[in-house]
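A.,

Following up on our hallway conversation. Structure tokens first:
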């Protein structure tokens, strides 16, 4: 399975980079993981609704340019469907079983994802009703993908 994780913004925090690198390394027997970062738009603290949409649209164009046309796209969004770790594992297993070997997870910037990205997404996934920094979300996501592979292989870890 080929998994892309497309995120807005550059990851700067060393401790998050180290955690992500560790889980990507652990996943190497299960899948090829491609971490793709697109630049975020610089924005002032206060924005109008129109300015917010314009920023999300610019970031969205960058995201969409990095997604393989035949990838199954999972957008991380608060309004998405919440799943347990076991349900995520089952979803990834079904995708692999039915020939969807390319999966792209998308994490937006601080303002979220554009309408165009949400329309391209095959599904929207929510990890919580809470808001997380998108950099931290990347670490949480790679851990959950790793956990999903362990669950699907019946290997210990997910207790």
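Then the amino acids I'd put at each of the 159 positions:
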């Amino acid at each position: 399975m080929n998994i892309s994780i497309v995120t807005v913004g550059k990851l700067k925090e060393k401790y998050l980079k180290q955690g992500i690198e560790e889980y990507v390394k652990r996943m190497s027997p299960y899948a090829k993981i491609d971490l793709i970062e697109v630049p975020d738009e610089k924005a002032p603290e206060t924005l109008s609704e129109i300015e917010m949409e314009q920023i999300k649209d610019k970031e969205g164009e960058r995201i969409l340019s990095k997604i393989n046309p035949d990838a199954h796209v999972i957008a991380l969004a608060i309004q998405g469907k919440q799943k347990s770790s076991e349900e995520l594992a089952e979803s990834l297993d079904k995708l692999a079983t039915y020939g969807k070997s390319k999966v792209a997870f998308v994490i937006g910037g601080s303002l979220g994802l554009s309408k165009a990205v949400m329309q391209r997404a095959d599904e929207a996934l929510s990890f919580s009703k809470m808001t997380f920094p998108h950099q931290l979300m990347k670490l949480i996501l790679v851990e959950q993908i790793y956990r999903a592979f362990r669950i699907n292989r019946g290997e210990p870890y997910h207790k």
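Residues 30 and 153 are 9 Å apart (CA to CA). Curious whether your intuition agrees with the design.

B.
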